[in-house]
Design goal:
binds biotin, 3 domains, Arc Repressor Mutant, subunit A, eight-stranded mixed sheet, BirA Bifunctional Protein, domain 2, single chain, 10 helices, 16 strands
Length: about 350
């Protein structure tokens, strides 16, 4: 972590004041360097008071999800160690794919920042660039998306400053057919964050819509680059309706936001950091076996479809049944009558509630 981030973290965690001397000892830098970093943070919009005997105190933070604000809140070993932030971009998933492919100038964003620790030298192959720019755990965050993508080619709305949109690049050593489970792991990480931070009774509509009172709060779109037997990289895109208070006509009755559910303004940086921490913990469990064996119970405890009637939109022919939960591979088990069960794979089909969206 860079020194400015460490100072910010120390100021946030001390819950009072911290002296220049303490900061200089903690970080192993001079007091002058501490002072320069404090000045730079103030210029970025952080309100830091300096009192002669007590030291520095953080009294206000900008409403931002820029790399510094998210990065200085992260307690992770792997996820989000490299962060790219954009005020506006076409789609964080698209950007993630461009850098993962090693495109020379992935561009198409405004207010973007290359991270200080991106390890880039001057001349390389596309593969080297991809590895340096888009290492495992790289996080791309945007305040606004102009061409946000939803599942099944739908558009995803991301108005500036109100929504949360981010994509995580992973380079897992797993067979391609295991990847759809990662989306369920992310769904669980997000639902846990909503529950622990805001006390919302958040559930998951299989495989990965996070809902409250039957309305959607968050969607997840996972994309993969692979060949037979080998995954090059995956991009997990997460869109959260954080502070939105109005929705386009066509989704008004099936969408809600964290602000509408809690009546409070949502600190988006805190939320992203929490999701990253949850995901890192759960993903580690998933990676060990490459299955949801250890996470199945936790998933089922919040899965809204369990024991409810569902309509399975299978391209080979839609059918109805009662959802009974998931198996170790994340497939939805649907009882279709007289004890017969069918496995529904999340990568292939979608499922609708019969009496509404869930
Ligand atoms: C869905 O249809 O439910 C999935 C929505 C996924 C939206 C997110 S927002 C961040 C990332 N970038 C995109 O363009 N899409 C995903």
């Amino acid at each position: 972590m860079d020194s400015k981030n460490e100072i910010l973290r120390a100021l946030r965690e001390c819950r009072g004041s911290v002296s220049g001397q303490e900061l200089s000892e903690q970080l192993g830098i001079s007091r002058t360097a501490v002072w320069k970093h404090i000045r730079a943070l103030q210029e970025e919009g952080y309100a830091i008071e300096a009192a002669s005997k007590k030291g520095y105190r953080l009294v206000g933070v900008p409403d931002t999800i820029a790399a510094r604000e998210v990065g200085s809140r992260l307690n992770t070993k792997r996820m989000g160690k490299t962060i790219y932030y954009f005020e506006t971009i076409d789609s964080t998933n698209q950007y993630a794919k461009r850098i993962a492919e090693g495109e020379g100038s992935p561009g198409r964003g405004k207010g973007g920042m290359r991270p200080a620790n991106d390890g880039m030298a001057d001349a390389f192959s596309a593969g080297d660039i991809a590895q340096a720019l888009a290492r495992d755990g790289t996080l791309i965050i945007a305040d606004e998306q102009t061409a946000g993508k939803g599942r099944s080619g739908r558009h995803w709305v991301t108005p500036p400053k109100e929504a949360v949109a981010f994509s995580l690049i992973l380079r897992p050593e797993l067979a391609p057919e295991r990847i759809s489970m990662v989306t369920l792991v992310m769904g669980l990480a997000v639902a846990d964050a909503f529950r622990s931070l805001y006390g919302i009774d958040a559930g998951i509509k299989w495989p990965n819509d996070i809902v409250a009172k039957g309305k959607k709060l968050c969607g997840i779109l996972t994309e993969m680059s692979a060949e037979i037997g080998e995954v090059h990289y995956i991009v997990i895109g997460v869109g959260i309706n954080a502070n939105l208070t109005a929705f386009p006509e066509e989704i008004r009755f099936i969408a809600t936001s964290l602000k509408l559910e809690t009546g409070k303004d949502i600190n988006r940086a805190e939320l992203i950091a929490k999701v990253m921490e949850n995901f890192e913990r759960l993903y580690e469990v998933f990676e060990k076996s490459g299955s949801l064996k250890e996470l199945k119970d936790a998933y089922q405890a919040v899965c809204m479809n369990v024991d409810r009637p569902v309509r399975v939109l299978d391209p080979k022919g839609a059918y109805t049944g009662t959802a009974r939960g998931i198996d170790d591979e994340g497939n939805l088990i649907v009882e279709t009558g007289e004890g017969a069960c069918r496995k529904v794979s999340s990568g292939e089909v979608s499922v609708r509630g019969i009496y509404g969206y869930v």
